[in-house]
Amino acid sequence: MRNTWLAEELTKLQNSENNLAITETIKYIEQLEDDNESLQIALEGNIWSPNKWNEKMEK
Fold first, then answer.
1. Which pTM was predicted?
2. What's the angle, vertex CA 19, arms to CA 5 and CA 34, rounded to 5?
3. Portion of the chain with pLDDT greater than 90, in percent
4. Given Cys at both, which of 1, 9, 14, 15 links 22, Cβ 3.0 to 4.6 Å?
5. What is the C-alpha R_g of the chain?
């Protein structure tokens, strides 16, 4: 998890009763972070693509 503070706080809350919920929450947040990074890379690649530079803007 990229947000170390959040990971530490979630781990502090973890106990035998909510272990599964906390573990799955951390996995879910990690998946969201990965998805956001993939989307950001895709968008940046699209914006900085030389093919896009030569396209005329539609009005």
1. 0.68
2. 50
3. 58
4. 14
5. 19
